[in-house]
Amino acid sequence: MTREPAREAATASVHAKFSQLARRDTAPELAVRRALHASGLRYRVEYPMPGAPRRRIDVAFPRQKLAVLIDGCFWHGCPEHRKPPARNSSWWDWKRATNEARDRDTDAKLREEGWRVLRIWEHVEPAQAVEMVRSALAEPSLGSPKPGSGML
């Protein structure tokens, strides 16, 4: 089955447009990272995800095994700000569903590796994100060594 030339051109132009979008260092990520750093927290950026080498953790605290993922409202289906595009809505529904399924799979894989996962929507204020991270870091992790075990 062949596509119509106009459809192919539109698809190629859409592909070219989306391939230029930032995959890392987005404005919300940078704002949260600046706030975390200003509050004295140190972390790793774009940390390779254990068990899934093609995926990355936006902000990682490897010693505490805390993965912080900053999700865009449009791409990840924020319940507050989800606004489906008027054109090609069936494709966009599929795309968002695919992203959400990948998010769930990422969470499951990280938890299998002993990590805790904190997802923060892009609309969350950076100061609130810092409090969320600090709260998560204060919780005892499931995989941490017992006191006196000699393990660090």
TrEMBL record:
* Cited Pfam families: Vsr
Which GO terms label this protein's molecular function in UniProt?
endonuclease activity; hydrolase activity
Q: Which GO terms describe its biological process?
A: mismatch repair
Q: Where on the tree of life does the source sit, at the highest rank?
A: Bacteria
Q: Name the Gene3D superfamilies for this protein.
A: VSR Endonuclease (3.40.960.10)
> Can you tell me which residues the record assigns to a coiled coil?
none
Which keywords label this protein? DNA damage, DNA repair, Endonuclease, Hydrolase, Nuclease
Which InterPro entries does the record associate with it?
A: DNA_mismatch_endonuc_vsr, Restrct_endonuc-II-like
State whether keyword Iron applies.
no
To which protein family does this belong?
Belongs to the Vsr family.
Official protein name in the record: Very short patch repair endonuclease
Question: Origin organism of this chain?
Answer: Propioniciclava sinopodophylli
Q: What taxonomic ancestry is recorded?
A: Bacteria, Bacillati, Actinomycetota, Actinomycetes, Propionibacteriales
